[in-house]
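Lecture notes, unit on protein representations.

Consider one protein chain, 161 amino acids long.
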Amino acid sequence: MDARIAPLLDILKLNTRLFLNCLDGVDDETAQRRPGDRVNNMTFIALHLVDARCYLARYVGLEHESPYKHLEDVASIDEMEEFPALAELRAAWSDVSERLAARLPALSDAVLGRESAQQFPVDDGTVLGGIAFLLEHESFHIGQLALLRKHFGLGAMSYPG
C-alpha cells in the first residue's frame, strides 16, 4: 500500500464507524424531523453521505452506483417526497464502505498522482487530493449528524468502534 493512503484509509474507517454511531438509537421519525426550516434533517444528511461515498467509490475506480441514484436531481430537502428508512441507509453505507476499504490500499502511486478529472477546493489537484477532500466532506456532514443527535436529546456521538 502506498504510504500516502494509510492516513486516508484510517479516516475512511473512522468515518464509517462515526456515521453509524451518529445514527445509533435514532428512529426514522426523529431522523426526519427538522429543527428549523433552513436546516436539513438527519435522514437527508445521511442520504447525502451515502451518495457522496458512492461517488468516492466511483472516483477511485469502483463500479458502484448509489442505490438512490433516482434522487440525483433533488437539489434540496424541500424537494423530497419521501425518505428512505435509516436501516436502508445504514446497509447502503456499510456495503460501499467495505468495498472502499478494500480498494484504497490497492491504489497505485501512478493512480494517486494522476491529475484529478474533478476539481475540488484543495491545493492538491491529484486523485490523492480528491480523496482527501471527499473524506473531509464526509467528516463535515458527520459533524452535522452529531450536532442533530444532541439537538434531539440523544447522547453525544461516540468514537468507540
